[in-house]
Write a structure and sequence with these properties.
Blueprint lengths: L21 H8 L6 H5 L5 E4 L2 E2 L9 E13 L8 E6 L4 E6 L4 H7 L5 E11 L2 E5 L3 E3 L10 E4 L8 H14 L9 H7 L4 H9 L12 H27 L10 H9 L6 H15 L5 E6 L5 H14 L3 E5 L3 H18 L3 E4 L5 H13 L4 E4 L13 E7 L6 H9 L5 E6 L5 H8 L3 E5 L9 E7 L3 H13 L3 E5 L14 H12 L4 E4 L5 H12 L5 E4 L12 E6 L7 H8 L9 E7 L5 H12 L3 H12 L1 H5 L1 H4 L13 H17 L6 H12 L3 H9 L1
Parallel strand pairs: 2-3, 5-7, 10-15, 10-16, 11-13, 11-14, 12-13, 14-15, 17-22, 18-20, 18-21, 19-20, 21-22
Antiparallel strand pairs: 1-9, 3-4, 3-6, 4-5, 6-7, 6-8
Helix pairs in contact: 4-6, 6-7, 7-23, 7-25, 8-10, 8-11, 9-10, 10-11, 14-23, 19-20
Length: about 700
């Protein structure tokens, strides 16, 4: 599909714009501007009031002043390095213009004695005399109209000036064609948004600070365009995934009933609703692409396993993939009793399986004898062939992006996909990163999960904490002790896990304390975890390797050392490792005083709530979107105008709008659909355009 002709001028070389030469073009690339259209979306960051005044007397220096003057005498510097001064007089007062390192002949031409000029710049008092150093603008009276009353100020990089930017932007805006409307009519009318071309022109010609705000209609419209284009792309990706021949997998409920009968509790309403949504998707001939979002301990594993049983009941197979071997083993251990109750053959496949054992497992998969497989990403390897894979459950989304979800489909497998994440993601971010998925949320805690008491304790009271631990261990309880870093480092005064391990072992006795950190060989790590899970060791000193997925119900104390340096989401994940058994659980946040404001706010939020979604919203407000998901691997789109944190509501509107448009016009062939194609070209959504031309 080739680029529409009416957009050609916006995709020309930058050097075709007024005042842009090869050097400026190279500098503009540093702002991400490579084509004239990129300048349209590089909006002014602030503005300067250049409204006309009659005299210096009308402002209180220091201030920006725009005034018409009569040029008086020039005073060139008597010695090198002194400034060049020009006397000028406005309607009420005489003052000086001051230039450093200026050429006299240039200034004589710019400011001829006896003529009138409009000048604008910063006026200051120096020894009681008003002076303006290096005016920003010097214009002839007949050019005065060229200076806007409110001058936009653009972001700059080295090699660019405001003058060059303003000329280039104006030149780009002049090229913007009138385009047909891609926004839903009633929505546009309700919001009072201008047409696209008018919005671009207005955004670049603000008449005051109000026009620079996100809430200004022109800016809001352009932000919406970005969000809408992004959601259209995600919806097209979703549609193409679904067009991939799905299989209808209709469960009989027989195996699920066996598992439910074996449980000592009744599933929560949220679990039942989530499962109904998943089973409904699996029964349809379209491919499922669903995100199962649940806070720590909301019972995602049960829902996922029941979904896998739907696949088995329908005569197929299911696979559950975890990001690490520890987690895969853990899932396997957690699912074994459920599989036994259902009478289903469950197998674990990791990179460690070799030779005859591996061959036997692979044969079972290929023949269909193995009904549910648990593994790491090694299940993607060439030699792993399923007999009839119906459902893939992927654990921990952040380490498994859109590309891998597509890869799973590319294996020629029409499997439904269910992604589980224990990280509650605020709605706006969920829409930005997973807008191509349907979302089920587990927002209830299963019965019998007790709240975790959270306390803040200054590190100065370390001895009391160790004494408390000694008593707890004597009563048969188990505890985690999380340290921020592995080895002692001179630079960072973090307690290292090694040193803390030695200290606690001396205080609590040999054999009571275990150690796990990221630099241990995997086999040692697994062995240390196994000793703790089996109750041989009572206290596990660990770095954050235990953040995700570790399940030891008897552990009821979590100590987090230097809690103030952890992020909110991480603290919440760590706390979720306790409170899984019948005992009352505690989380002690040890901090080093004094706390700065943001650390105090983080720890206080954690003490006040166990609601992961509230914590995530708070985290978003404090850290910003890129940080929250770790921008590098978040796959979060980079928006130029839209702001995910403050315009979350717009994102939701854009998603609904994009889905409705594509539902009625999947190939974007209608008038509005064709307009939307122009938007996709404008905003470089090439992926969407490819999906359209393929579809």
């Amino acid at each position: 599909m080739s680029r529409p002709e009416r957009l050609f001028p916006l995709f020309a070389d930058l050097e075709t714009l007024d005042g842009v030469g090869p050097k400026s073009a190279r500098a503009l690339a540093g702002l991400g501007v490579e084509r004239p259209k990129d300048l349209l979306f590089l909006l002014p960051a602030s503005g300067v009031d250049r409204s006309r005044r009659a005299s210096v007397r009308d402002v209180v220096p220091p201030a920006t002043l725009t005034v018409e003057v009569e040029v008086g005498t020039h005073f060139p510097p008597r010695t090198r390095g002194r400034p060049y001064r020009v006397m000028v007089r406005d309607a009420g007062l005489e003052f000086q213009l001051v230039y450093f390192h200026a050429r006299g002949d240039f200034l004589q031409k710019l400011l001829p004695t006896g003529q009138r000029r409009l000048i604008s710049g910063r006026i200051e008092l120096f020894d009681g005399i008003a002076q303006m150093v290096h005016p920003d603008h010097v214009l002839r009276p007949e050019e005065a109209a060229d200076l806007p009353a409110y001058e936009p100020v653009y972001p700059l990089v080295a090699g660019l000036t405001q003058k060059v930017m303003a000329r280039a932007a104006a030149s780009a805006v002049a090229r913007a064609p009138d385009l047909p409307e891609w926004i839903d009519g009633p929505l546009k009318a309700r919001e009072g948004w201008p047409d696209w071309r008018a919005a671009v022109a207005l955004a670049h010609a603000p008449s005051g600070p109000g026009d620079l705000a996100q809430t200004a209609p022109a800016r809001q419209r352009l932000a919406y365009d970005e969000l809408f284009a992004h959601q259209l792309t995600l919806s097209l990706a979703r549609a193409s995934l679904r067009r991939g021949k799905g299989r209808a997998s209709i469960g009989t409920g027989v195996l699920q009933a066996r598992v439910l009968a074996s449980l000592p509790y009744v599933p929560t309403g949220a679990q039942t609703r989530a499962l109904a949504g998943i089973a409904g998707d699996m029964a349809s001939p379209l491919r499922m692409n669903r995100l199962l979002q649940g806070d720590v301990g909301s019972g995602k594993t049960l829902v996922a396993f029941l979904a896998l049983l739907v696949a088995v009941e329908a005569g197929g197979q299911g696979v559950m993939m975890a990001p690490t071997e520890i987690l895969a083993r853990q899932h396997f251990a957690g699912l074994e009793p459920l599989a036994a109750a259902a009478g289903v053959r469950l197998v674990l496949l990791t990179g460690r399986d070799k030779g005859a054992e591996r061959a036997q497992k692979l044969a079972g998969l290929a023949s269909g004898a193995v009904q549910v497989l648990v593994g790491t990403h090694s299940v993607f390897q060439k030699d792993v062939q399923f007999h009839d894979l119906r459902l893939a459950v992927v654990d921990e989304q952040h380490r498994f992006g859109v590309a891998q979800r597509m890869e799973l489909g590319a294996k020629g497998v029409a499997a439904d996909v269910l992604v589980m994440t224990a990280t509650p993601i605020p709605r706006s971010l969920a829409l930005a990163s997973y807008g191509d998925m349907d979302v089920s949320v587990l927002d209830e805690k299963p019965a019998g999960r007790k709240p975790v008491r959270t306390a803040l304790i200054s590190a100065a009271r370390m001895d009391e904490v160790v004494a408390h631990l000694r008593r707890a261990v004597a009563e048969g309880r188990q505890a985690y002790w999380v340290c921020p870093l592995v080895e002692d480092s001179e630079v960072l005064d973090y307690a290292s896990a090694e040193a803390r391990f030695q200290h606690l072992r001396a205080a609590l006795g040999e054999g009571v304390v275990g150690l796990v950190h990221g630099q241990m060989p995997p086999a040692e790590k697994d062995a240390a975890m196994a000793r703790f899970a089996g109750g041989m060791t009572r206290v596990l000193v660990a770095t954050t390797v235990i953040e995700v997925g570790v399940n030891v119900p008897n552990a009821s104390i979590m100590v987090i050392e230097r809690a103030e340096i952890f992020g909110l989401a991480q603290l919440h994940q760590l706390r979720g490792r306790v409170g899984r058994g019948s005992a009352d659980s505690t989380c002690l946040l040890l901090y080093q005083a004094p706390l700065n404001e943001s650390a105090e706010r983080r720890l206080t939020v954690l003490r006040e709530t166990e609601d992961g979604f509230r914590i995530a919203e708070e985290d978003l407000a404090m850290r910003g979107a890129g940080d929250l998901i770790g921008t590098a691997q978040s796959g979060l789109p980079r928006f130029r105008i839209a702001d995910l944190e403050r315009q979350a509501a717009l994102m939701a509107v854009a998603q609904g709008d994009a889905r409705r448009l594509l539902a009625g016009d999947p190939a974007l062939e209608s008038d509005r659909g064709r307009a939307a194609r122009l938007l996709l070209w404008l905003l470089d959504q090439d992926r969407a355009i490819r999906l359209l031309s393929v579809g």
